[in-house]
Amino acid sequence: MSEIVGLYWEDWEVGREWTTRGRTMTEAAIETYAGLSGDYNPLHTDEEFARRTAFGTRIAHGPLTYAFAAGLLYQLHLYDDTLIALLGLDHLRFTRPVKIGDTLRARVRVLERRETSRPDRGIVRRALWVLNQRDEVVLEAEQVLLLKRRPPPAEPTQ
Fold first, then answer.
1. CA Rg, the chain, in Å?
2. What band does 2 get if pLDDT is binned at 50, 70 and 90?
3. Who has the most CB within 10 Å: 39, 71, 101, 156?
């Protein structure tokens, strides 16, 4: 069985893009997130209340939408065993509501790759968009990742 290894810092080419498969937002996901986070805002949990809002129905929590994207991106195996840390999430915007039944997918594009003071790691900045089934952007942000650099070749043994 071969070991899955994600992309090293050197493999992240500026301009390269990936798109995930879809995942449908469910009532169960919203209820579970409300329970985990303690955010029981009626906009997310009370259909009668939500019907009287501009959205006309319950909508997903913004951080839940981001969590869907993070999970979908993880499933691409881009950074299995190479991601050290998520350093930041910049310019995060929730641009449209996500409703129960919306199917989301994430798209990322590499914006920048830079070295750090340590030779075993580097930083990648990438744009993130989360799109619904109508190709409407519902979330946009920039992610900053700290990734392992490719290890030097092993010294030959004599």
1. 19
2. low
3. 39
- As a whole number of angstroms, the distance between CA 45 and CA 54 comes to 15
* H/E stretch holding 147: strand 137-148
Helix axes 62-74, 27-37, angle to 10 degrees: 110
- Report the CATH number at residue 75: 3.10.129.10
Distance CA 64, CA 103 (A): 13
For residue 67, the number of C-alpha atoms closer than 13 Å in the C-beta half-sphere is 13
What residues make up the domain containing 73?
A: 9-24+60-148
Residue 55 lies in a domain: no
Instruction: Count Cβ atoms below 10 Å from residue 42 Cβ, excluding itself.
Output: 13
Chain Cα centroid distance, residue 29: 16
pLDDT tens digits along 25-72: 999 999 999 999 999 999 999 999 999 999 999 999 999 999 999 999
